[in-house]
Each structure stands twice: as C-alpha cells, then as structure tokens.
Amino acid sequence: MNRLLLLLGLALAGAARADSLYDERTYRALAADHKAFRVGDLITVQVYEISSASSSTDTATQRRNGLDASLRLLDGKQWGAAAGVTGEFAGGGSTQRTNRLLATLTVSVREVLATGDLVLGGEQLLTVNEEQHRVNLAGRVRPQDVSSDNVVLSTRLADARIDYVGDGDLSQRQRRSWWRKLLDWMGL
C-alpha cells in the first residue's frame, strides 16, 4: 500500500506540463531579416540632411519737402524764409545659409502604430575636444523603408525632428552676447 501511495504521489507531483516555445508576438523565422518590429527594438538611422536658403532685398526711397515763405513790408523791405527737408534712403541686404548634418545613430522603437509604422526616438551624446554635441532624433518610419540591415535614412522619416546642439567654449563664442541682443532689439 505504501508503494502504491508513493507511486501515486510521484505521478501527481511530476505531472508533465507542456508549454509551447512558440510565441506569435515575437516569432521570427530563421531566414527572416532581423529588422526592428516591436517596442524596444533598436534601429540605426543614417542622418543625411542638407538645407540651404538665400534671400536678398534692395530698397531705395526718396522724399523731398519744401516750404517757402516771404513777407513784404510797406516800406519796401522784404523778409524771406525758406525751409527744406530732404531725405534719401538706400539699403539692401542678403542672407545665405547652408546647413549640412551627417551622422549615424541607433535609436529605439518607442511605439508601433496601428498602421504598422514605427515611432522612433533616441539621443546620442558626443564629446569632441571638450565640446559636448547632442543629436536628438524622433520620427515615424514605414517598416518597408527599413533595409534588411536594419538601417533607415533620415530622409525616409515622416514627422522627423532632428536636433543637433553643441555646448562648450566654441559654441559659446558663436552666440551673440545679451547686450548685443538688447541693442538689436532696440534697433540700434
């Protein structure tokens, strides 16, 4: 009887439980591309942005005002006065700006939209010669725009926001001082 209870106890204690190793949410075929497809996956973005703008203006204005007055007295004396104002303005200016940003950074998938689009976001911090450079990137990409190497060009991002900010001595020297900004604001 003891043996029967022992066998029954072992059978109940060691009841096999089978769980599948297959999880359809994370399944990837062995021959499939290893591209980002879920929240938390990493994706490499090659930032290749070039922009340029230019504008120029020419302005010329002239204004002339004149006023003459004379007064003749009975004794034949004549007094006269004249006033005149003349003003001319000629001005012009031109602005030309060209920006180029080339960088490669790896960001993470923050959200997968109902359309299957991936919402990306991330940041890279570089220090070069004691200057900190920060690249922030956010945007949305279609899975078909991601290469088989899990790389996407920044030109393929929708709603892209790319910020490149430097902080250090060189960056500080390029900024206008507060008093210069005040004088510009006052028009001086």
In short:
By secondary structure, this protein is mainly beta. The protein has helices at residues 2-13, 169-174, 178-186; strands at residues 42-72, 78-112, 118-128, 131-141, 151-153, 158-167.
Topology:
Elements lengths: L1 H12 L28 E31 L5 E35 L5 E11 L2 E11 L9 E3 L4 E10 L1 H6 L3 H9 L2
What would you call the shape? rod-shaped
Termini separation comes to 107 Å
Point out poorly predicted stretches.
none
Mean pLDDT: 78
The chain-level structural class is mainly beta
| Total beta strands | 6
Write the H/E string, N to C: HEEEEEEHH
The total of helices stands at: 3
Strand order across the largest sheet: 5-1-2-3-4-6
DSSP strand (E) fraction? over 45%
Domains (count): 1
Profile the largest sheet: 6 strands, mixed
Radius of gyration: 37 Å
Helix content: 10-25%
Tags for this entry?
rod-shaped, 3 helices, 188 residues
Task: Please give a structural write-up.
With 188 residues, the chain is mainly beta. It has one domain. The chain has helices at residues 2-13, 169-174, 178-186; strands at 42-72, 78-112, 118-128, 131-141, 151-153, 158-167. A six-stranded mixed β-sheet has the order 5-1-2-3-4-6. Strand 2 (78-112) and strand 3 form a beta hairpin. The radius of gyration is 37 Å and the shape is rod-shaped.
